[in-house]
User: Fold these one by one.
Assistant:
Number 1:
Amino acid sequence: MTERRVSRAIRIGDVTVGGGVPVVVQSMAKTHTADVRATVEQVKRLEACGCEIIRVAVPDSEAAGCLSAIKKGISIPLVADIHFDHRLALAAIKGGVDGLRLNPGNISDPAHVAKVVRAAKERQVPIRVGVNGGSLPKTDDESLSVVTRMVQAAMGQIKLLEDMDFDLIKVSLKAFDVPTTVEAYKTIAGIMPYPLHLGITESGTPGCGSIRSAVGIGAMLYLGLGDTIRVSLTGDPTEEVAAAYEILKSLNLRVRGPTMVSCPTCGRTEVDLISLAQAVEKRMAAVSRPIKVAVMGCVVNGPGEAKDADLGIACGRGRGAIFRKGELICTVDEKDLVDTLMAEVDKLVRAIS
Amino acid sequence: MTERRVSRAIRIGDVTVGGGVPVVVQSMAKTHTADVRATVEQVKRLEACGCEIIRVAVPDSEAAGCLSAIKKGISIPLVADIHFDHRLALAAIKGGVDGLRLNPGNISDPAHVAKVVRAAKERQVPIRVGVNGGSLPKTDDESLSVVTRMVQAAMGQIKLLEDMDFDLIKVSLKAFDVPTTVEAYKTIAGIMPYPLHLGITESGTPGCGSIRSAVGIGAMLYLGLGDTIRVSLTGDPTEEVAAAYEILKSLNLRVRGPTMVSCPTCGRTEVDLISLAQAVEKRMAAVSRPIKVAVMGCVVNGPGEAKDADLGIACGRGRGAIFRKGELICTVDEKDLVDTLMAEVDKLVRAIS
């Protein structure tokens, strides 16, 4: 992996983004912001599954007026997502938000941006310059690539902010197309010092969208880019947070909850491995500790992977060997495998708690 | 994206792998190979969803004896997966398979490998040198990294093959750990000319496993590596093929079936977008043409993304505007959106068929 780019650190509430700290996971509420109760309830569910920063849409003054109440009800930093109307950004800052997201595609009037920056500076509220492929500023130059237009839009707004001596900046350049997105982030990473918020925009429903996001966000993280990530999925926002951690876990950038190694099964397998893996996964969902468990179907890679995990099952014909930290501890019938493994998981959880 | 590495092309049956042709999608049957009927039935389901090469396990001589019957029943090239016993490889070649996979971790006796190579050469059957992190050859040198051990295992067996003037070679170096896997492939890609079969081994159940595979395989494809891919998931093998295409589609490396752009929804959305996107996705599943459809919740990125797609919906309050190739064609009530969109999809499919 490429060594991580060290960006300038900023603080969104009490969460540091950038400067080499671990990558921060965020999501966005899907409730109507003016429905304070529903929004707080959803954010609390997101906090419980590891969301570290939450963003809410601020489409109108009613929504802006609810931000302070939402902030009181939640424990993680609150970011207001603003489009079109800079006055909503001013109201959000007054409401006590921990961060703003502005879209240079639809808040481009320098006088309006300046008003927001003055207020943000006074309260030390960071601003994300959030460019999106679907809402780029108009251009007369048809020859410019989408990547160039994205980078130019961001750099234009960054300059406005810097000219007012404001540097609490975070940047995103999201598109649906993965190579476009990666190229845009790579380009801007080389020409400005601020932290990067990564995402693939409008990536779709959880099935396809988590794969597209994993390819795009994963490639950028592999290349050393990214200080915070948001996976955008058309589904429950807890799925966004779960997918974000899976991406980070697969690059060893964050640890959260169990990791399951399981083989795809093949004609060599002599147990019902798919059911076994599903049963283990279901019961492991209740485990919050970062335990690595392997569920393996045969003698080819089974013992190797099972020994490499904290706990592992390597199956043979109708039976399975259970390994703990590389040591074979017992061999049990297929029907007893899940219970025996989970008893060992419980022991291990107690030991490390 | 990095320009694709051009490997030496080989032919697995009538499918070319390497040499710059599009990345080939493969999977592995999960049936008992000796159950010819179940295996052929599963492979036919995989063919129908785009699988282009199929591998089956050959754990014993009974399985080896069934390969010719399986080959007669299917339309895509058949690869025999061999571990431990080189005589099964000889039997598979006699049975008419289109390719072999040998594991240097458990078939390392040069005399045995030589016998297989002679038979493979006679019938021009390619061999995949398939190294797996869970079954590496033993080593006395504890200081070697897993990456080094994987690369050395592969290069050792490649040398045996080359020394017998055999070059119908494909190489894989799969591990569960993504950075390890990517590093191993990057290393070997620079020191030998053969095509690469990419995969993240034992990546888990479809939820986590497809994300881990997307990060790993996606990063390698982004770096220009890879001639064929297999996503290993503990689940139905059609899920492996679907995930493989989603990975390839997100890097614009293959086109297959529809692509859906849909926004994650937020407090700005005034329709039930999640249900709408799910309904569209369900009905698009029957469309085999590569149509890009956008389902967008609001005016921020909605019109931009909807215009960029072949067909798109950009929603407002209880209504949606439908775009075809960038042109607004009508605005309809939320309840009529799916039917109106799908009527347009049908028209487009007829027009391009």
Number 2:
Amino acid sequence: MKTIGHLINGTIDTQASRTQDIFNPSTGEVSKQLALASKPTVEAAIAAAQAAYPAWRNTPPLKRAKIMFRFKELLERNADEICRLIGEEHGKIAHDAMGELQRGIENVEYACGAPELLKGEFSKNAGPAIDSWSEFQPLGVVAGITPFNFPAMVPLWMYPMAIVCGNTFVLKPSERNPSSVLFIAELLHEAGLPPGVLNVVNGDKEAVDVLLSDARIQAVSFVGSTPIAEYIYTTASANGKRCQALGGAKNHAIIMPDADMDNAVSALVGAAFGSSGERCMALSVAVAVGDEAADALISKMSEQMKSLKVGAFSDKTNDFGPLITRAHQEKVVGYISSAEQQGATLVVDGRKPTVAGYDKGFYVGGTLIDNVTADMTCYKEEIFGPVLLVMRVNSMQEAMQLIDDHEYGNGTCIFTRDGEAARYFSDNIMVGMVGINVPLPVPVAYHSFGGWKRSLFGDLHAYGPDAVRFYTKRKTVTQRWPSAGVREGAQFSFPS
Amino acid sequence: MKTIGHLINGTIDTQASRTQDIFNPSTGEVSKQLALASKPTVEAAIAAAQAAYPAWRNTPPLKRAKIMFRFKELLERNADEICRLIGEEHGKIAHDAMGELQRGIENVEYACGAPELLKGEFSKNAGPAIDSWSEFQPLGVVAGITPFNFPAMVPLWMYPMAIVCGNTFVLKPSERNPSSVLFIAELLHEAGLPPGVLNVVNGDKEAVDVLLSDARIQAVSFVGSTPIAEYIYTTASANGKRCQALGGAKNHAIIMPDADMDNAVSALVGAAFGSSGERCMALSVAVAVGDEAADALISKMSEQMKSLKVGAFSDKTNDFGPLITRAHQEKVVGYISSAEQQGATLVVDGRKPTVAGYDKGFYVGGTLIDNVTADMTCYKEEIFGPVLLVMRVNSMQEAMQLIDDHEYGNGTCIFTRDGEAARYFSDNIMVGMVGINVPLPVPVAYHSFGGWKRSLFGDLHAYGPDAVRFYTKRKTVTQRWPSAGVREGAQFSFPS
Amino acid sequence: MKTIGHLINGTIDTQASRTQDIFNPSTGEVSKQLALASKPTVEAAIAAAQAAYPAWRNTPPLKRAKIMFRFKELLERNADEICRLIGEEHGKIAHDAMGELQRGIENVEYACGAPELLKGEFSKNAGPAIDSWSEFQPLGVVAGITPFNFPAMVPLWMYPMAIVCGNTFVLKPSERNPSSVLFIAELLHEAGLPPGVLNVVNGDKEAVDVLLSDARIQAVSFVGSTPIAEYIYTTASANGKRCQALGGAKNHAIIMPDADMDNAVSALVGAAFGSSGERCMALSVAVAVGDEAADALISKMSEQMKSLKVGAFSDKTNDFGPLITRAHQEKVVGYISSAEQQGATLVVDGRKPTVAGYDKGFYVGGTLIDNVTADMTCYKEEIFGPVLLVMRVNSMQEAMQLIDDHEYGNGTCIFTRDGEAARYFSDNIMVGMVGINVPLPVPVAYHSFGGWKRSLFGDLHAYGPDAVRFYTKRKTVTQRWPSAGVREGAQFSFPS
Amino acid sequence: MKTIGHLINGTIDTQASRTQDIFNPSTGEVSKQLALASKPTVEAAIAAAQAAYPAWRNTPPLKRAKIMFRFKELLERNADEICRLIGEEHGKIAHDAMGELQRGIENVEYACGAPELLKGEFSKNAGPAIDSWSEFQPLGVVAGITPFNFPAMVPLWMYPMAIVCGNTFVLKPSERNPSSVLFIAELLHEAGLPPGVLNVVNGDKEAVDVLLSDARIQAVSFVGSTPIAEYIYTTASANGKRCQALGGAKNHAIIMPDADMDNAVSALVGAAFGSSGERCMALSVAVAVGDEAADALISKMSEQMKSLKVGAFSDKTNDFGPLITRAHQEKVVGYISSAEQQGATLVVDGRKPTVAGYDKGFYVGGTLIDNVTADMTCYKEEIFGPVLLVMRVNSMQEAMQLIDDHEYGNGTCIFTRDGEAARYFSDNIMVGMVGINVPLPVPVAYHSFGGWKRSLFGDLHAYGPDAVRFYTKRKTVTQRWPSAGVREGAQFSFPS
């Protein structure tokens, strides 16, 4: 059985004292072994990054960007293989993996604009004959810690921008699906990245804690669940590191009485069940304003869900695949059951889907639950499964209050045709990413991604313009030149 | 004896269960009493800020800025009174207080540009008929905690920008010199600020800890010493607050052999002894490259220091005044003595200055110490007094290594006439604010202020463009309008 | 009778070989004489501006901005007097003059942000150890030529930004109402502007042609009618000058069937008749989609127009005042009559208003004309009077076609509650300034003002960010420092 | 013999009523025929661009940019062939053609950042519940007219940015060397550009005049000589088009007494003789401050010129190749002779170079002329050949005066080691592109290219950020949503 190792200083290292199983969630079987990095391994990666830093920092941004251009080419050329690796270890269907990869590539495209993005601010005559300018200099060695649900995209949110800004990087991806991460990292080396600029270590908390405590790490980017995000942020901050840590979500859609209901339902099906709901931007709660809207929603939704197809990653006709682990499957099923027990109405029950030939896979089918209330466990926590909760309220204000009262503030959307309702909602809702008739308002690569409240810890959002600020620090120079006589002196030296 | 109170919801409150003496450092006498805020008092201020927030947030930025324009007028009109209040409680001579105030006013001027500074980013056709934009929304209630050494300027670094961005504010200034702070805050109300938008509470650690723990406070800005800055940053971060905490400094000037030595010496005298060295940007170490430069520096410096005049704040012919407290005076004297004991050469000794008529004032005279080495106590710690250390090295590289090895990275400068040396220095030195022949490279109000290493905790610097980012959070909206038939429908309703 | 002169090099000059009458349009009487500048007078103004340029250019932007801050104060303090001067010579009622002045002041506020607005772009390591930056340097002496209809506002669109960018300025305002212009220019001097930086010359085509041909003038800003704008632009361009020339308008409002009709009618009354329609952003055509909307519009509009009050500038209860000249009054009346003759329906006829006690004033009352078609003279030309044309179409597309087919493309708006209609309209309409339920979509001072098609000649719009670009030119510097041995040399000079 | 045609609507069209010879300047022989576009041909190209515009305008910028990414790949993959085509028709040696192409590709890289570059400005609450934003919309069909000297680079300055901004394009390249232009344009189609978005017409004044007069052309970019630039600018402006027209140059280098002379000489050799001096940024005048500097310069320069190798494009060991035509060769020789006749000292004479085997080629060798004065013909006019003039002055001020007195203001540089001299020079010199120890200060692709004085007609420079502004127009939208009852109504419809 193949052992997946680390990529340190441009070289794959598969030696390991500890290993862990990697599963194929579609079949439920172990497919590979993962080497888990010990402290010395992580320190070797940091040392490689540290050694590569001085030369990389002094490489002109334009040259750094040229490597990103080639990286984009290689990602596109190898897209099918990347998607296959993602599917095998994550369970995602190819069309979904391709969507994820495409989003990741768009972050690489954004990084190609580094020369423009890194421009500083120049002030002539800040004082008499005094100029002042601010540069945005790289930080040094920075780290990224990424989750299982977007093995290609989330690392690509981080290191292309970090690297193109002049930093060197140590990435610790999810231990569930490291293969696409390593494959992509090797493509970046093929594109011309010098060894040591990007290093990948696989591991668990032991590896993470080295990254959080080693003084050579200047900054940490994290995406995962809120409790871990909070731990990462607090620990990294206390250790003097810059940190941005993105956590969990509970994304609500408000369905207004004037919404185009067919559109809304189509949008919700994709946004709730796509990737089995294992997305931090998945729409997991639909809040219908008025029973009329709620009834129409439930009716059209349950009708449309009849054609939903769950199954193995390898069949492209499937809509979505298995969950990531047996444990997670059981947890999701538990949430559904708790909803039923706590009084909600189970309209479509996906707890026991039949997936012919894959009975050991970690599947849960699309599930629709009506009459959910704010005190239910299924509402208070993030399910991260293909489960859509429906809540009924009497007014838009009530719907907004629900959203603002929730712990998370990642994404939200409203379905309406009315300009005023949309503007009021987007202005006032305490959520960082807002859709107006757009169910998954993931910002495009040239805006930045970030939730509010306990969905993000830190000042600056992920990718886009904020990433430039996160991965650089401001240096302000104030300059005055005293005369050395060269200019005036010359006038006297050579009289006519 | 007058008791200084709090400004909460537009009203002065002087009731207090605990009070503390306020001294006039020039005379060494107690002049006023300060009410120390209890937890309920701080909470009342937070509540006032919270109540004022919704209306203030919805006030157009242009209207908010108009109040800043009037505030600037009032600051200028009342400049003499402000400087008198500063002098009385801080000991700063009027010309120095005026300089501080002027810098503060320039931050108010910058805040007047809010409508431009708050512009978001708009992307037409992020997708087909989909628009996306990012807004920079205020955070809510934010807090500022400020030091004694710039009672007018440092608060003005914070709340004008915070407020003009739509936040409401609770300020806890230094307990040493609160009078100018309160006077200025009242001017802002006179300029039209609604009650509750800016609140000032005086107090000590009890007040600070409420600000760090109360869930209604969204962000904390701090300026002070590094140990406190670290405590503030770690605590506020752990409590889920955005935080920027500026700490101590040890600012080095490199004197290159080709420097214009007369210019350099003049610059150093002001930068080392101005405001008794109680500035986080004070130049406290001169690193001379080569003995020739060092000898010239010592010789010219000690000559020029003969005319330095230390004395009471009320005499404008004085160059600088007393230190802030008796305890601090003794601490500075202790540093000077330790230097002597550890082998440095005391060239000019300011430990016992004569200030006729003010023998109880907290004075230390200008002090010049040669042959300082990196292991001495006076070098390792921030003295915050009128003491200039001179170190001798053999190369620019050695000088830069000294600077980079020091715990702090606030400001630094180089004196040279050579373009290449200046560019190499400013590019590579690990310090946030760099001067080239400029001894106090404090960024102008439209750049941002911030040190590196342990001189600043947080991602974003103080004032200037970074303040806009610190005091706002990004919200990204993605919008698609489904047809409601209004546009096309009309075509069919009224056929020709 | 008082003679109004020029302001050259900080001094008023009233000598003149030629003069012209200035009227009070409310009474129809001559009230003052205007000195008309000869070629030598204009050249003296240019020479003063040229002489003032070098010192002004080198004055730090922050210092230049400080004068603008004081200018704003003085404008506010003297607002009543300014409005009185405007009213006397233009006929505008005080509330309208105050609105104009307020908009002008907001341009001064924007100019106060010069230090931020003038920041250049800095690129570290454009190549190895090569830095490159772009500065935005002033042009030199620039000129402005402004119309009668906004004597305070339009000049304030121009010279505050031009001057704060480091240029010096020659202004030739309208010969109809120069008094407020001169008064305001003197306030700017009172605010601290050095003599020669702003010069005002009064005159006619003789003066204009000097400004268009003199080689010392680097750029010309113009606001007026389209034929003159075209002449100015073509001539100035052919003479190698930078030019922006804003011309005429025919601003349409589309009234959709779903519009909030009461809101729309209120908005239209102000936008069509305010300032007697003598605004380049006046709404002069309402295009109703469907007869139902049209009938409702006509009915509500004619009802609301009953309370419209036209009269002398000195009575603040009037809604609007006289037209600027007898000739213009007759021209507007002629347009109304032509509409009637060409088959339109005259719903409300303002040709003979009664203004008790002012029977020689140049008054025209609010006029509403229905069933206007695209071939009528009143539609093809800009009326610049208190006349609202109503057109009836069957679809939004037809309404948009009308707008796009018109020669002008200054402003337009749509009244609808529908997000999709608004987005389609604003995206596709060939007009530079678009309102969505906003009848006068004049951009705020921190956006820029400019029409499309034959409403503006030039690349860059007036005021706001575009003004910074118009009044500066880019200089790009690329810098590499060869070693002079200072940095490395020192290492060898002083071996340890 | 092959006939080179046009590329219209994605198809090559070689039919022509008129043709013109294309030469191989290295051999002096005719190698191809060029079809010259008649008015109907140009109109067909415009019509194709017009037809392609609506769909292209609505293509999201991200999708437009993706084509630019693929274009870059194809340019790199086909670089050798492009350089061969350039060499054959221009005479440029492969290393020089590769340099040109590389610069062109960097403009394509910049265009890949379109989604970031096209961001508009968004203002929430410009008024109460009123939002306002500015979009940068494409212009429509725009044209480019480009010179022979950079057949690959200059067109790539223009159409990638124009197209990525949403415009469609008609390019008229130089009639001397159209083959690389067409080949590159076909690569862009291979990259996925829809037909009609980019059209190439070959021709002469007949074609140009159609582009300048046809009402469908919204803007014209031109690079060429100053007299033609002025004609283009004046004509296009008078016809209501936006225009930027870049003209000639006379680029001076100041050699200060403290310059690193070896560096300076190496830099000058490349900058004066590279590409036979047929560059608008060629350094054609060296101004030495003081005779000592001048003598050293002449001595080292003439020494280094001994190894200069002129010859056919096909031999990569050559330093530079022939001039573009026989006529131009004779013109350059004439300038050299005139210098001699007017009293200058011909130090190195390149009038009769020997190029074995290519005696009919249009060669001129590297030429160095000392003691040139400002009244000589060779100084007043642009030579555009491998000729370096040396002038001797007594002071830096005198050198700067020479530069400022010259008609052109394209590029300039100074060689010095002194910070103060460099800063004074770059601040004050009336030239748009300034080098400090950089002989060819061509801005990188993410800054903009443009001279001052008669070297550029128009407000905005070529490529970089200015190109975004040149190829778009600002539209400002102001939006207020009246309540349609959807938001509040819902509260009342469903009471609890």
